[in-house]
Design goal:
Oligomer: single chain
Shape: globular
Structural class: alpha+beta
Strand content: 15-25%
Number of domains: 3
Number of helices: 14
Helix content: 25-40%
Radius of gyration: 23 Å
Length: 496
Protein backbone atom coordinates (compact mmCIF):
# COMPACT_ATOMS: atom_id res chain seq x y z
CA UNK A 1 0.00 0.00 0.00
CA UNK A 2 1.37 3.41 -0.95
CA UNK A 3 1.62 5.86 1.92
CA UNK A 4 -1.40 8.14 1.92
CA UNK A 5 -3.26 6.05 -0.66
CA UNK A 6 -6.94 5.19 -0.38
CA UNK A 7 -8.79 2.10 -1.55
CA UNK A 8 -10.56 2.65 -4.87
CA UNK A 9 -13.30 0.17 -3.91
CA UNK A 10 -15.07 2.90 -1.94
CA UNK A 11 -14.86 5.22 -4.90
CA UNK A 12 -16.24 2.62 -7.30
CA UNK A 13 -19.25 2.19 -5.04
CA UNK A 14 -19.73 5.97 -4.93
CA UNK A 15 -19.37 6.26 -8.71
CA UNK A 16 -22.01 3.58 -9.25
CA UNK A 17 -24.45 5.37 -6.92
CA UNK A 18 -23.81 8.84 -8.37
CA UNK A 19 -24.36 7.55 -11.92
CA UNK A 20 -27.83 6.39 -10.91
CA UNK A 21 -28.59 9.62 -9.06
CA UNK A 22 -27.74 11.61 -12.20
CA UNK A 23 -30.00 9.55 -14.44
CA UNK A 24 -27.24 7.42 -16.01
CA UNK A 25 -27.11 3.62 -16.19
CA UNK A 26 -23.85 2.31 -14.66
CA UNK A 27 -24.45 -1.26 -15.88
CA UNK A 28 -25.41 -2.66 -19.26
CA UNK A 29 -28.87 -4.24 -19.45
CA UNK A 30 -29.05 -7.98 -20.06
CA UNK A 31 -30.41 -7.51 -23.58
CA UNK A 32 -27.41 -5.40 -24.59
CA UNK A 33 -24.96 -7.94 -23.17
CA UNK A 34 -26.80 -10.74 -24.96
CA UNK A 35 -26.59 -8.83 -28.24
CA UNK A 36 -22.82 -8.49 -27.90
CA UNK A 37 -22.42 -12.09 -26.77
CA UNK A 38 -24.17 -13.23 -29.95
CA UNK A 39 -21.54 -11.55 -32.14
CA UNK A 40 -18.96 -13.94 -33.51
CA UNK A 41 -15.30 -13.50 -32.63
CA UNK A 42 -14.57 -12.48 -36.22
CA UNK A 43 -17.57 -10.15 -36.63
CA UNK A 44 -15.32 -7.21 -37.51
CA UNK A 45 -13.44 -9.29 -40.09
CA UNK A 46 -16.71 -10.40 -41.66
CA UNK A 47 -17.89 -6.80 -41.86
CA UNK A 48 -14.62 -5.87 -43.60
CA UNK A 49 -14.94 -8.75 -46.05
CA UNK A 50 -18.49 -7.75 -46.94
CA UNK A 51 -17.51 -4.10 -47.36
CA UNK A 52 -14.55 -5.02 -49.54
CA UNK A 53 -17.00 -6.32 -52.15
CA UNK A 54 -18.70 -2.92 -52.36
CA UNK A 55 -17.14 -0.69 -55.06
CA UNK A 56 -17.64 2.52 -53.09
CA UNK A 57 -15.51 1.24 -50.18
CA UNK A 58 -11.86 2.10 -50.79
CA UNK A 59 -8.99 -0.10 -49.65
CA UNK A 60 -6.51 2.11 -47.76
CA UNK A 61 -4.96 -0.60 -45.61
CA UNK A 62 -1.50 -0.02 -47.10
CA UNK A 63 -1.31 3.57 -45.81
CA UNK A 64 0.77 4.49 -42.75
CA UNK A 65 -2.17 4.91 -40.39
CA UNK A 66 -1.51 5.43 -36.68
CA UNK A 67 -3.52 6.23 -33.56
CA UNK A 68 -2.44 8.64 -30.82
CA UNK A 69 -4.35 8.43 -27.56
CA UNK A 70 -3.81 7.96 -23.84
CA UNK A 71 -1.35 5.23 -22.83
CA UNK A 72 -4.07 2.90 -21.58
CA UNK A 73 -6.79 3.69 -24.15
CA UNK A 74 -8.18 0.74 -26.07
CA UNK A 75 -11.39 2.33 -27.40
CA UNK A 76 -9.64 3.84 -30.42
CA UNK A 77 -11.98 6.00 -32.49
CA UNK A 78 -9.68 7.57 -35.06
CA UNK A 79 -6.53 7.10 -37.10
CA UNK A 80 -4.67 9.67 -39.16
CA UNK A 81 -2.26 9.78 -42.08
CA UNK A 82 -0.73 12.57 -44.18
CA UNK A 83 -0.14 12.45 -47.95
CA UNK A 84 2.00 15.18 -49.57
CA UNK A 85 0.50 16.64 -52.73
CA UNK A 86 1.66 19.27 -55.24
CA UNK A 87 2.41 22.91 -54.35
CA UNK A 88 2.88 22.23 -50.67
CA UNK A 89 -0.65 20.90 -50.18
CA UNK A 90 -0.91 17.98 -47.77
CA UNK A 91 -3.93 15.68 -47.72
CA UNK A 92 -4.82 14.76 -44.14
CA UNK A 93 -7.03 11.69 -43.83
CA UNK A 94 -8.83 10.97 -40.58
CA UNK A 95 -10.37 7.52 -40.34
CA UNK A 96 -13.28 7.17 -37.91
CA UNK A 97 -14.31 3.75 -36.59
CA UNK A 98 -17.48 2.52 -38.31
CA UNK A 99 -19.35 1.70 -35.09
CA UNK A 100 -22.69 1.67 -36.90
CA UNK A 101 -21.58 -1.42 -38.84
CA UNK A 102 -21.97 -3.53 -35.66
CA UNK A 103 -24.36 -1.38 -33.57
CA UNK A 104 -27.64 -1.11 -35.41
CA UNK A 105 -29.96 1.80 -34.66
CA UNK A 106 -32.76 0.67 -32.36
CA UNK A 107 -30.87 -2.35 -31.04
CA UNK A 108 -30.45 -3.07 -27.32
CA UNK A 109 -26.86 -1.77 -27.34
CA UNK A 110 -27.98 1.34 -29.18
CA UNK A 111 -30.78 1.90 -26.65
CA UNK A 112 -28.29 1.92 -23.76
CA UNK A 113 -25.94 4.20 -25.69
CA UNK A 114 -28.78 6.60 -26.45
CA UNK A 115 -29.72 6.70 -22.77
CA UNK A 116 -26.26 7.55 -21.37
CA UNK A 117 -25.05 9.24 -24.60
CA UNK A 118 -21.40 9.21 -23.49
CA UNK A 119 -18.70 7.20 -21.76
CA UNK A 120 -18.16 8.43 -18.22
CA UNK A 121 -14.55 8.62 -17.03
CA UNK A 122 -14.34 8.70 -13.24
CA UNK A 123 -11.13 8.45 -11.21
CA UNK A 124 -12.32 5.08 -9.88
CA UNK A 125 -13.87 3.41 -12.91
CA UNK A 126 -14.75 3.97 -16.56
CA UNK A 127 -18.39 3.45 -17.52
CA UNK A 128 -18.16 2.92 -21.31
CA UNK A 129 -21.02 3.90 -23.57
CA UNK A 130 -20.65 0.61 -25.46
CA UNK A 131 -19.80 -2.81 -24.01
CA UNK A 132 -16.04 -3.26 -23.94
CA UNK A 133 -16.07 -6.18 -26.36
CA UNK A 134 -17.24 -3.64 -28.92
CA UNK A 135 -15.50 -0.41 -27.95
CA UNK A 136 -12.10 -1.92 -27.13
CA UNK A 137 -12.14 -4.69 -29.73
CA UNK A 138 -14.67 -5.16 -32.50
CA UNK A 139 -15.39 -1.45 -33.15
CA UNK A 140 -11.99 -0.16 -32.06
CA UNK A 141 -9.36 0.78 -34.65
CA UNK A 142 -6.97 -1.52 -32.84
CA UNK A 143 -3.34 -1.89 -33.85
CA UNK A 144 -2.64 -4.60 -36.38
CA UNK A 145 -6.28 -5.14 -37.34
CA UNK A 146 -8.25 -4.45 -40.52
CA UNK A 147 -11.23 -2.25 -39.74
CA UNK A 148 -14.09 -0.47 -41.49
CA UNK A 149 -14.07 3.31 -41.25
CA UNK A 150 -15.52 6.57 -42.44
CA UNK A 151 -12.65 8.67 -43.82
CA UNK A 152 -12.69 12.45 -43.73
CA UNK A 153 -10.07 13.73 -46.19
CA UNK A 154 -8.86 17.34 -46.13
CA UNK A 155 -6.44 19.08 -48.49
CA UNK A 156 -4.54 21.55 -46.31
CA UNK A 157 -2.75 24.33 -48.20
CA UNK A 158 0.52 25.96 -47.14
CA UNK A 159 -1.39 28.83 -45.57
CA UNK A 160 -3.37 26.40 -43.37
CA UNK A 161 -6.69 26.73 -45.19
CA UNK A 162 -8.64 23.67 -46.33
CA UNK A 163 -8.57 23.78 -50.12
CA UNK A 164 -10.82 20.77 -50.60
CA UNK A 165 -12.36 17.83 -48.79
CA UNK A 166 -14.30 14.63 -49.25
CA UNK A 167 -15.88 11.90 -47.12
CA UNK A 168 -15.98 8.22 -48.04
CA UNK A 169 -15.98 4.70 -46.60
CA UNK A 170 -12.73 2.75 -46.48
CA UNK A 171 -10.87 -0.23 -45.06
CA UNK A 172 -7.94 0.80 -42.87
CA UNK A 173 -5.19 -0.85 -40.81
CA UNK A 174 -3.62 0.74 -37.71
CA UNK A 175 0.16 0.33 -38.03
CA UNK A 176 1.15 1.98 -34.74
CA UNK A 177 -0.70 2.50 -31.47
CA UNK A 178 0.96 5.60 -30.01
CA UNK A 179 0.57 7.51 -26.75
CA UNK A 180 0.27 11.28 -26.28
CA UNK A 181 3.02 11.79 -23.71
CA UNK A 182 5.78 9.79 -25.41
CA UNK A 183 4.99 11.21 -28.87
CA UNK A 184 4.93 14.76 -27.50
CA UNK A 185 8.26 14.30 -25.72
CA UNK A 186 9.82 12.93 -28.92
CA UNK A 187 8.44 15.78 -31.06
CA UNK A 188 9.73 18.27 -28.49
CA UNK A 189 13.18 16.66 -28.61
CA UNK A 190 13.18 15.76 -24.90
CA UNK A 191 12.93 11.98 -25.30
CA UNK A 192 13.95 9.21 -27.68
CA UNK A 193 11.70 8.03 -30.48
CA UNK A 194 9.05 5.62 -29.15
CA UNK A 195 9.63 2.02 -30.18
CA UNK A 196 6.21 1.85 -31.86
CA UNK A 197 7.34 4.61 -34.25
CA UNK A 198 10.81 3.21 -34.86
CA UNK A 199 9.39 -0.21 -35.74
CA UNK A 200 7.41 1.12 -38.73
CA UNK A 201 9.55 2.39 -41.64
CA UNK A 202 8.55 5.93 -42.56
CA UNK A 203 6.37 6.52 -39.50
CA UNK A 204 8.75 9.11 -38.04
CA UNK A 205 8.59 11.29 -41.16
CA UNK A 206 4.84 10.69 -41.32
CA UNK A 207 4.31 12.03 -37.80
CA UNK A 208 6.56 15.05 -38.30
CA UNK A 209 4.53 15.95 -41.39
CA UNK A 210 1.27 15.57 -39.44
CA UNK A 211 2.72 17.81 -36.72
CA UNK A 212 3.59 20.49 -39.29
CA UNK A 213 0.13 20.43 -40.87
CA UNK A 214 -1.58 20.55 -37.47
CA UNK A 215 0.41 23.71 -36.72
CA UNK A 216 -0.85 25.26 -39.98
CA UNK A 217 -4.46 24.47 -39.12
CA UNK A 218 -4.01 25.83 -35.58
CA UNK A 219 -2.49 29.09 -36.81
CA UNK A 220 -5.45 29.79 -39.08
CA UNK A 221 -7.95 29.05 -36.32
CA UNK A 222 -6.21 31.42 -33.93
CA UNK A 223 -6.08 34.15 -36.58
CA UNK A 224 -9.86 33.82 -36.80
CA UNK A 225 -10.28 34.08 -33.03
CA UNK A 226 -10.01 30.50 -31.75
CA UNK A 227 -9.05 30.80 -28.10
CA UNK A 228 -5.66 29.73 -26.81
CA UNK A 229 -6.48 27.88 -23.59
CA UNK A 230 -4.47 25.50 -21.44
CA UNK A 231 -6.72 24.02 -18.80
CA UNK A 232 -5.44 21.38 -16.39
CA UNK A 233 -7.43 18.21 -15.81
CA UNK A 234 -7.08 15.94 -12.79
CA UNK A 235 -5.38 12.61 -13.50
CA UNK A 236 -5.76 9.79 -11.00
CA UNK A 237 -2.55 8.16 -9.81
CA UNK A 238 -3.51 4.56 -8.96
CA UNK A 239 -1.28 1.64 -7.98
CA UNK A 240 -2.35 -1.74 -6.57
CA UNK A 241 -5.98 -0.56 -6.57
CA UNK A 242 -5.06 2.39 -4.35
CA UNK A 243 -5.67 6.05 -5.25
CA UNK A 244 -2.45 7.86 -4.32
CA UNK A 245 -3.01 11.32 -5.80
CA UNK A 246 -4.93 13.49 -8.22
CA UNK A 247 -2.30 15.24 -10.31
CA UNK A 248 -2.69 17.97 -12.93
CA UNK A 249 -2.70 16.59 -16.48
CA UNK A 250 -1.82 19.28 -19.00
CA UNK A 251 -2.08 19.52 -22.78
CA UNK A 252 0.92 18.69 -24.93
CA UNK A 253 2.02 18.79 -28.54
CA UNK A 254 0.60 15.38 -29.49
CA UNK A 255 -2.77 16.15 -27.89
CA UNK A 256 -2.79 19.41 -29.83
CA UNK A 257 -2.08 17.57 -33.08
CA UNK A 258 -5.06 15.29 -32.65
CA UNK A 259 -7.27 18.15 -31.44
CA UNK A 260 -6.43 20.20 -34.54
CA UNK A 261 -7.26 17.32 -36.88
CA UNK A 262 -10.51 16.50 -35.07
CA UNK A 263 -11.70 20.13 -35.12
CA UNK A 264 -11.03 20.31 -38.85
CA UNK A 265 -12.70 16.94 -39.51
CA UNK A 266 -15.78 17.91 -37.51
CA UNK A 267 -16.08 21.08 -39.56
CA UNK A 268 -15.90 19.10 -42.80
CA UNK A 269 -18.63 16.72 -41.55
CA UNK A 270 -20.92 19.62 -40.64
CA UNK A 271 -20.49 21.32 -44.01
CA UNK A 272 -20.92 18.04 -45.90
CA UNK A 273 -24.32 17.38 -44.31
CA UNK A 274 -25.44 20.99 -44.78
CA UNK A 275 -24.43 20.96 -48.45
CA UNK A 276 -26.45 17.79 -48.97
CA UNK A 277 -29.54 19.25 -47.31
CA UNK A 278 -29.44 16.92 -44.29
CA UNK A 279 -30.79 18.10 -40.89
CA UNK A 280 -28.10 17.32 -38.33
CA UNK A 281 -26.78 17.97 -34.85
CA UNK A 282 -24.37 20.84 -34.32
CA UNK A 283 -22.07 21.41 -31.37
CA UNK A 284 -22.27 25.07 -30.33
CA UNK A 285 -20.81 27.36 -27.69
CA UNK A 286 -22.74 30.61 -27.72
CA UNK A 287 -21.37 34.08 -27.05
CA UNK A 288 -20.51 34.28 -23.33
CA UNK A 289 -23.23 35.68 -21.06
CA UNK A 290 -20.63 36.81 -18.51
CA UNK A 291 -18.51 38.76 -20.97
CA UNK A 292 -18.43 41.73 -18.58
CA UNK A 293 -16.61 39.56 -16.01
CA UNK A 294 -14.10 38.46 -18.68
CA UNK A 295 -13.53 42.17 -19.43
CA UNK A 296 -13.01 42.86 -15.72
CA UNK A 297 -10.70 39.88 -15.38
CA UNK A 298 -8.58 41.15 -18.27
CA UNK A 299 -8.51 44.68 -16.84
CA UNK A 300 -7.23 43.32 -13.53
CA UNK A 301 -4.28 41.85 -15.42
CA UNK A 302 -3.54 44.98 -17.39
CA UNK A 303 -5.50 44.01 -20.50
CA UNK A 304 -8.29 45.75 -22.36
CA UNK A 305 -11.24 44.09 -24.08
CA UNK A 306 -14.18 45.63 -25.99
CA UNK A 307 -17.62 45.86 -24.41
CA UNK A 308 -19.11 43.33 -26.82
CA UNK A 309 -17.90 39.70 -27.09
CA UNK A 310 -14.90 39.58 -29.41
CA UNK A 311 -13.05 36.27 -29.79
CA UNK A 312 -10.10 37.76 -31.69
CA UNK A 313 -9.51 40.42 -29.02
CA UNK A 314 -9.87 37.83 -26.24
CA UNK A 315 -7.38 35.49 -27.88
CA UNK A 316 -4.90 38.34 -28.33
CA UNK A 317 -5.14 39.01 -24.59
CA UNK A 318 -4.74 35.31 -23.79
CA UNK A 319 -1.60 35.05 -25.92
CA UNK A 320 -0.14 38.09 -24.15
CA UNK A 321 -0.83 36.55 -20.74
CA UNK A 322 0.66 33.20 -21.73
CA UNK A 323 3.89 34.96 -22.72
CA UNK A 324 3.90 37.15 -19.60
CA UNK A 325 3.00 34.51 -16.99
CA UNK A 326 3.08 30.94 -18.37
CA UNK A 327 2.93 29.35 -14.90
CA UNK A 328 -0.40 30.96 -14.03
CA UNK A 329 -1.86 30.74 -17.54
CA UNK A 330 -3.74 27.48 -16.83
CA UNK A 331 -5.52 29.23 -13.95
CA UNK A 332 -6.55 32.09 -16.24
CA UNK A 333 -7.63 29.58 -18.89
CA UNK A 334 -9.86 27.75 -16.43
CA UNK A 335 -11.53 31.01 -15.40
CA UNK A 336 -12.21 31.95 -19.02
CA UNK A 337 -13.62 28.47 -19.76
CA UNK A 338 -15.99 28.77 -16.78
CA UNK A 339 -17.13 32.22 -17.90
CA UNK A 340 -17.65 31.15 -21.52
CA UNK A 341 -20.30 28.65 -20.47
CA UNK A 342 -20.95 25.06 -21.46
CA UNK A 343 -21.33 23.73 -24.97
CA UNK A 344 -24.58 22.21 -26.18
CA UNK A 345 -26.04 20.19 -29.02
CA UNK A 346 -28.66 21.78 -31.25
CA UNK A 347 -30.58 20.69 -34.33
CA UNK A 348 -29.67 22.64 -37.43
CA UNK A 349 -31.73 22.58 -40.57
CA UNK A 350 -30.01 23.04 -43.95
CA UNK A 351 -29.36 26.69 -44.76
CA UNK A 352 -30.17 27.78 -41.23
CA UNK A 353 -27.66 30.16 -39.58
CA UNK A 354 -25.65 28.48 -36.83
CA UNK A 355 -24.72 30.06 -33.48
CA UNK A 356 -21.28 28.55 -34.07
CA UNK A 357 -18.62 27.68 -31.54
CA UNK A 358 -17.29 30.84 -29.87
CA UNK A 359 -14.23 29.14 -28.36
CA UNK A 360 -13.14 27.55 -31.65
CA UNK A 361 -14.16 30.54 -33.80
CA UNK A 362 -16.01 28.31 -36.26
CA UNK A 363 -19.57 28.44 -37.57
CA UNK A 364 -19.82 24.92 -38.93
CA UNK A 365 -19.10 22.35 -36.25
CA UNK A 366 -20.46 18.99 -35.18
CA UNK A 367 -19.20 15.97 -33.25
CA UNK A 368 -18.33 13.08 -35.55
CA UNK A 369 -14.92 11.70 -34.54
CA UNK A 370 -15.60 9.60 -31.40
CA UNK A 371 -18.52 7.21 -32.06
CA UNK A 372 -17.25 4.64 -29.53
CA UNK A 373 -17.45 7.23 -26.75
CA UNK A 374 -20.18 9.75 -27.69
CA UNK A 375 -23.66 9.09 -29.03
CA UNK A 376 -23.92 12.38 -31.00
CA UNK A 377 -20.94 11.17 -33.03
CA UNK A 378 -22.72 7.88 -33.76
CA UNK A 379 -25.80 9.84 -34.86
CA UNK A 380 -23.64 11.94 -37.20
CA UNK A 381 -21.97 8.80 -38.53
CA UNK A 382 -25.33 7.32 -39.48
CA UNK A 383 -26.31 10.58 -41.19
CA UNK A 384 -23.04 10.59 -43.14
CA UNK A 385 -23.41 6.96 -44.22
CA UNK A 386 -27.01 7.48 -45.32
CA UNK A 387 -25.98 10.55 -47.33
CA UNK A 388 -23.12 8.67 -48.99
CA UNK A 389 -25.54 5.87 -49.91
CA UNK A 390 -28.12 8.36 -51.24
CA UNK A 391 -30.57 6.95 -48.69
CA UNK A 392 -33.14 8.82 -46.56
CA UNK A 393 -32.04 10.19 -43.22
CA UNK A 394 -32.30 7.53 -40.48
CA UNK A 395 -33.66 10.16 -38.06
CA UNK A 396 -36.77 12.32 -38.25
CA UNK A 397 -36.33 16.04 -37.57
CA UNK A 398 -38.22 15.97 -34.27
CA UNK A 399 -36.25 12.92 -33.17
CA UNK A 400 -33.01 14.81 -33.81
CA UNK A 401 -34.32 17.82 -31.92
CA UNK A 402 -35.16 15.66 -28.90
CA UNK A 403 -31.80 13.87 -29.11
CA UNK A 404 -29.92 17.18 -29.15
CA UNK A 405 -31.55 18.25 -25.89
CA UNK A 406 -31.12 14.81 -24.32
CA UNK A 407 -27.45 14.52 -25.29
CA UNK A 408 -26.75 17.96 -23.83
CA UNK A 409 -28.48 17.04 -20.57
CA UNK A 410 -26.70 13.69 -20.25
CA UNK A 411 -23.31 15.16 -21.11
CA UNK A 412 -23.78 17.68 -18.31
CA UNK A 413 -24.84 14.88 -15.96
CA UNK A 414 -21.76 12.84 -16.89
CA UNK A 415 -19.50 15.82 -16.21
CA UNK A 416 -21.10 16.22 -12.78
CA UNK A 417 -20.53 12.53 -12.04
CA UNK A 418 -16.87 12.82 -13.02
CA UNK A 419 -16.41 15.93 -10.86
CA UNK A 420 -18.23 14.47 -7.88
CA UNK A 421 -16.25 11.21 -7.89
CA UNK A 422 -13.01 13.19 -8.27
CA UNK A 423 -14.05 15.24 -5.26
CA UNK A 424 -14.86 12.08 -3.32
CA UNK A 425 -11.37 10.85 -4.12
CA UNK A 426 -9.88 14.17 -3.05
CA UNK A 427 -12.00 14.12 0.10
CA UNK A 428 -10.49 10.73 0.95
CA UNK A 429 -6.99 12.03 0.31
CA UNK A 430 -7.63 15.22 2.33
CA UNK A 431 -9.47 13.64 5.26
CA UNK A 432 -6.38 13.80 7.47
CA UNK A 433 -5.56 17.41 6.57
CA UNK A 434 -8.44 19.35 8.15
CA UNK A 435 -7.17 22.81 9.06
CA UNK A 436 -4.47 22.85 6.36
CA UNK A 437 -4.15 25.89 4.11
CA UNK A 438 -3.92 25.91 0.33
CA UNK A 439 -3.39 28.46 -2.42
CA UNK A 440 -6.26 28.46 -4.87
CA UNK A 441 -8.14 30.32 -7.56
CA UNK A 442 -11.86 31.09 -7.65
CA UNK A 443 -13.43 29.14 -10.52
CA UNK A 444 -17.12 29.80 -9.90
CA UNK A 445 -19.19 32.44 -8.17
CA UNK A 446 -22.96 32.74 -8.32
CA UNK A 447 -26.27 31.87 -6.73
CA UNK A 448 -25.26 28.21 -6.44
CA UNK A 449 -22.09 28.97 -4.50
CA UNK A 450 -18.47 30.05 -4.73
CA UNK A 451 -15.85 27.52 -5.80
CA UNK A 452 -12.08 27.43 -5.58
CA UNK A 453 -9.53 25.11 -7.19
CA UNK A 454 -6.38 23.94 -5.46
CA UNK A 455 -3.52 22.12 -7.17
CA UNK A 456 -2.50 19.34 -4.77
CA UNK A 457 -4.63 17.35 -5.08
CA UNK A 458 -6.03 18.96 -8.23
CA UNK A 459 -9.65 19.50 -7.21
CA UNK A 460 -12.36 22.11 -6.66
CA UNK A 461 -14.07 22.76 -3.33
CA UNK A 462 -16.74 25.11 -2.08
CA UNK A 463 -15.99 28.28 -0.14
CA UNK A 464 -18.51 28.34 2.74
CA UNK A 465 -16.92 31.06 4.87
CA UNK A 466 -15.31 34.38 3.94
CA UNK A 467 -16.67 34.34 0.40
CA UNK A 468 -17.93 37.95 0.30
CA UNK A 469 -16.51 39.82 -2.66
CA UNK A 470 -14.92 36.80 -4.32
CA UNK A 471 -15.36 36.37 -8.06
CA UNK A 472 -14.04 34.14 -10.81
CA UNK A 473 -10.32 34.59 -11.32
CA UNK A 474 -9.49 35.86 -7.83
CA UNK A 475 -6.52 34.19 -6.16
CA UNK A 476 -7.17 33.26 -2.55
CA UNK A 477 -5.73 31.34 0.39
CA UNK A 478 -8.22 28.86 1.80
CA UNK A 479 -8.33 26.65 4.87
CA UNK A 480 -9.83 23.17 4.71
CA UNK A 481 -12.82 22.99 7.07
CA UNK A 482 -14.39 19.61 6.35
CA UNK A 483 -14.85 16.80 3.85
CA UNK A 484 -17.69 14.44 3.04
CA UNK A 485 -16.47 11.47 1.03
CA UNK A 486 -19.88 10.06 0.10
CA UNK A 487 -21.21 13.36 -1.26
CA UNK A 488 -17.90 14.61 -2.60
CA UNK A 489 -18.03 17.76 -0.48
CA UNK A 490 -14.86 19.72 0.22
CA UNK A 491 -15.51 22.87 2.23
CA UNK A 492 -13.06 25.75 2.57
CA UNK A 493 -12.90 29.06 4.40
CA UNK A 494 -11.23 31.97 2.62
CA UNK A 495 -8.57 33.36 4.93
CA UNK A 496 -7.04 36.02 2.69
Amino acid sequence: MSQGGVDTGTLRSIAHRVMQERGLEPDFPAAALAQVQALSANAADLACAEAARQPEVRDLRASLWCSIDNDDSRDLDQLSVAEPRADGVVRILVAIADVDALVAAGSAVDAHASLNTTSVYTVAQIFPMLPERLSTDLTSLAAGRDRLSIVIAMDVALDGTIAGSEIFRALVHNRAKLAYDSVAAWLDGTAAMPAAIASVPGMDAQLRLQDQVAARLRAVRHERGALTLETIEARAVIADDMLNDLQPDSKNRAKGLIEDFMIAANGVSARFLDQHGVPALRRVVREPKRWERIVALAAGLGGSLPERPDAIALNRFLLERRRADPQRFPDLSLCVVKLLGAGEYVLELPGEPSPGHFGLAVRDYTHSTAPNRRFPDLITQRLLKATLAHAPSPYAIETLRALAAHCTEQENSAAKVERQVAKSGAALLLASRIGARFEGIVTGAGDKGTWVRILSPAVEGRVVRGLAGLDVGDRVTVQLLSTNVQRGYIDFAAVS
